[in-house]
Amino acid sequence: MEHLLGDEWKISPAGGLTGDAYFAQNDGKKLFLKRNSSPFLAVLSAEGIVPKLVWTKRLENGDVITAQHWISARELKPNDMNMESVAQLLHKIHHSKELLDMLTRLGKEPVEPSNILEDIRNGMALELLSLEVIQKSLDFLTKEIVNVHFKDKVVCHCDLNHNNWLLSDNQELFLIDWDGAVIADPAIDLCMLLYWYIPENNWSDWLSTYGITLTDSLRHRMHWYVIAQTILSVQWYHHKNIDKEKQNWLNYLDRLLPIEL
Description:
Distance between the termini: 55 Å
Strand order of the largest sheet: 1-2-3-5-4
Structural class: alpha+beta
Domain Aminoglycoside phosphotransferase: 14-224
Helix content: 40-55%
CATH superfamily of the largest domain: Aminoglycoside phosphotransferase (APH), C-terminal lobe
Strand content: 15-25%
Number of helices: 11
Order of helices and strands: HEEEHEEEHHHHHEEEEHHHH
Largest sheet: 5 strands, antiparallel
Protein name: Aminoglycoside phosphotransferase domain-containing protein
Number of domains: 2
InterPro entries: Aminoglycoside_PTrfase, CcrZ_PhaseVar_Mediator, Kinase-like_dom_sf
CATH class of the largest domain: Alpha Beta
Pfam family, one: APH
Number of strands: 10
Organism: Sutcliffiella rhizosphaerae
């Protein structure tokens, strides 16, 4: 990294799971560097959804390095997710033709409920399949799949954890970590945010700020997707041998299941 910027820059790891992110500082100037970010980043920057992209450089080995403005910001806390600006930014993302066009050009195919259910089945360990809560959940997803099709696909972030939202000192809101973005039913994003952060009696008001009405169809689609996403979380922690988190998600899955299947 040093040869890209010069010896006067101090570069340090920025953490993260991949180890491909860095901070660079020089005489009061600060940059956030990342190796092999998606070309999607340029559109996200242009739309004001992530901190501004400064430059992109391709190395001789084919790696691509991107530099973004480093901003002084804090991660949102769980109770911040009810802010109007969160709903408004997510509405902007879901209604951006530029984001949708770019993901389409990058070869992303729309994700259907059947694709998600197939992924769940293909990744299901026998140990998990023997659990009653998993069996009931799969029965529900299979039975209700015909009732959750939605033709108006949008760009979905798919990981709306409060830690991925940054609020700058200037009160600018950004959504980062776009590696898992897909083209799909917006209910995928909405279910995560509402189920995890917003009391159910406030869903209608939150969605009104976002720009839509809470219908029976939307409620049903969100319920289908939150069960699917919870099973995927169970599978992820199972494969990582993190039993405590796996059990937490299994308990949550049990609470999500309808009484009557």
